[in-house]
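#lab-general

N.A. 3:47 PM
ok so I finally got the sequence cleaned up, no stray characters, all 377 residues accounted for. can someone with queue access submit it? mine expired

B.Y. 3:52 PM
send it over

N.A. 3:53 PM
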Amino acid sequence: MIRKKIAIVVNNSWSAWNFRANLGFAFQKLGHEVIFISPYDEYSENIKEYFKHQDIAINSKGINPIEDLRLIYNFYKVYKNVQPDIICHYNIKPNIYGTIAASILKIPTINNIAGLGTLFINQNFITKIAKWLYKFSQKKAKKIFFQNQNDFKMFVDEDLVQKDKCDVLPGSGVDIEKFKPVEKEDDGMFRFLVVSRMLWTKGIQEFIDAAKIIKQKHQDVEFQLLGYLDMKSPTAISKKQMDIWVKDGCINYLGGSGDVRVEIAKADIIVLPSFYREGTPRALLESASMQKPIITTDNVGCRDVVNDGVNGYLCEVKNAVDLADKMEKMLRLTNEQRNVMGKAGRRKIVKEFDETIVIRKYIDAIEAVNLNVYSIL
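B.Y. 4:20 PM
back already:
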């Protein structure tokens, strides 16, 4: 294999470290040099223990065209300085603007379109611009990975990408050795847990409303939220609103976590009532890998993790009553029935979503670039 310098570009260092480090380690084992390019935060120091790291400022939520033009120039400067042989992009701005910058320098790129987010829920003029930018930029990519069949089909049907350069990954994959089953201690409390950024589009309001319905019938049931309050997002839930819910006794807010396994292990059921345009939600993959039954929406990306009635239940999008009904069904099951569901979820993850599947596809893509298999665009 030809040894290369590979850049992994992510819009924040937290996700770079938590979600992409194992890919970096796999590249290192093959003799490649790996450099992460992401905005500096406390997790950049974790990255620096094992890889090179280059800071870059990315306003992931901004839509200012002048700022985005400046970002293309910043990508160009960083890439020219770092001189990678291949670049792996994640997130919308690196995928679009990083690819444009890389093409000017004739650096091949492998892009990962991991969900489409808020922009593609209610389509508007900004969505049209985003689609045009995707179409323009992805022509210059060597390989494009999607995380679910729905996004792949939409991009192909709308002629935003060339089908023959695309492939579908099983989400981001999950480290099945890290996220292993842990027996829950029985403390007399039944817990429903949402693991997510605290955004309205993740269905947090629906979770709250469903919790109120269930609390009218059951006493020893707790509803928990685990995840960061994202004040930069236009769909962010404010700290003020969260404090109101906590004070009212609707939910327990656990804040963020450096290791979600601790709280997942204490939960009985993992819930994600998202109507966000997901890739394949990492929290659901990790929870199912830990043998937890799932309740999630029959929504893009979410439905890929759950076989309805087998390892969890699917509920209707934006329907708190239906969500509460699925919670009630879970409560009526015996411990043994829920354990059977959890084990089915673990088997599904091991078979379909093992991180090694994703890593193998990336290694094959890198080898194809090295061998110049992909056509020069």
